[in-house]
């Protein structure tokens, strides 16, 4: 496993790997797994999938300042590069890219990538500019690495939808691979920010997965249910937890992310569109997101 802090040496190594393979009559597949570090089993699952499906795996670790708002947790975002590198080596990563902020943004960036519509709802509504920062840094990483496939966790379903649309709109020759949410045994979705939770807050946070699974069961049941009913039931269950402070509870088309009408029926039969049931909730100062996706829906 090789580590790189600079863009040029990483690019040279990638070019060498592709050139060497071409001389042997081969065409290698390169995977990119973009992360902000403080890696956990969810990230490991992305790396394992990337390793199984590609010839060369690149892991990027970069806490991207331009996707954090002025009152968010950039400075205290958890970091543990030594642990991250140990996990990367264990999972068979070939190259790790660990740039500094100065390497990625030697001057304040005047160029940003914006995906209209998809970034104004859900997390984008309460974190203005967040997804512009995400798409810009991911676009930079795509240009630096030029991967064939890029792997993202479905826990941030909005990010998956936004990046996928960016790739389509800008004709990146990259396949975006969404990967399932990885959870603790008690249902809590793995997140680097879980480290911020007190024991009481962590226990309270289990209400997220419980309420979402109840909503999934109801939507997939025999009795028709509409989007308004699901939103209200999820809100009631989360609000019953004293430590929970709801940012949003939403039921939307996926991947378009347009909210379903209150009386629009939700279930798992029928048409090709998916349904995203998503929540964002604060426990103390820690904001957590979670979701479930139904693969199809039916209108009344």
TrEMBL record:
<feature type="binding site">
    <location>
        <position position="67"/>
    </location>
    <ligand>
        <name>beta-alanine</name>
    </ligand>
</feature>
<feature type="binding site">
    <location>
        <position position="159"/>
    </location>
    <ligand>
        <name>(R)-pantoate</name>
    </ligand>
</feature>
<dbReference type="InterPro" id="IPR003721">
    <property type="entry name" value="Pantoate_ligase"/>
</dbReference>
<dbReference type="InterPro" id="IPR004821">
    <property type="entry name" value="Cyt_trans-like"/>
</dbReference>
<dbReference type="InterPro" id="IPR042176">
    <property type="entry name" value="Pantoate_ligase_C"/>
</dbReference>
<dbReference type="Pfam" id="PF02569">
    <property type="entry name" value="Pantoate_ligase"/>
</dbReference>
<keyword id="KW-0067">ATP-binding</keyword>
<protein>
    <recommendedName>
        <fullName>Pantothenate synthetase</fullName>
        <ecNumber>6.3.2.1</ecNumber>
    </recommendedName>
</protein>
<comment type="similarity">
    <text>Belongs to the pantothenate synthetase family.</text>
</comment>
<feature type="binding site">
    <location>
        <position position="67"/>
    </location>
    <ligand>
        <name>(R)-pantoate</name>
    </ligand>
</feature>
<comment type="pathway">
    <text>Cofactor biosynthesis; (R)-pantothenate biosynthesis; (R)-pantothenate from (R)-pantoate and beta-alanine: step 1/1.</text>
</comment>
<keyword id="KW-0963">Cytoplasm</keyword>
<comment type="function">
    <text>Catalyzes the condensation of pantoate with beta-alanine in an ATP-dependent reaction via a pantoyl-adenylate intermediate.</text>
</comment>
<feature type="binding site">
    <location>
        <begin position="36"/>
        <end position="43"/>
    </location>
    <ligand>
        <name>ATP</name>
    </ligand>
</feature>
<feature type="binding site">
    <location>
        <position position="182"/>
    </location>
    <ligand>
        <name>ATP</name>
    </ligand>
</feature>
<keyword id="KW-0547">Nucleotide-binding</keyword>
<feature type="binding site">
    <location>
        <begin position="190"/>
        <end position="193"/>
    </location>
    <ligand>
        <name>ATP</name>
    </ligand>
</feature>
<comment type="subunit">
    <text>Homodimer.</text>
</comment>
<keyword id="KW-0566">Pantothenate biosynthesis</keyword>
<dbReference type="GO" id="GO:0016874">
    <property type="term" value="F:ligase activity"/>
</dbReference>
<keyword id="KW-0436">Ligase</keyword>
<dbReference type="InterPro" id="IPR014729">
    <property type="entry name" value="Rossmann-like_a/b/a_fold"/>
</dbReference>
<feature type="binding site">
    <location>
        <begin position="153"/>
        <end position="156"/>
    </location>
    <ligand>
        <name>ATP</name>
    </ligand>
</feature>
<feature type="active site" description="Proton donor">
    <location>
        <position position="43"/>
    </location>
</feature>
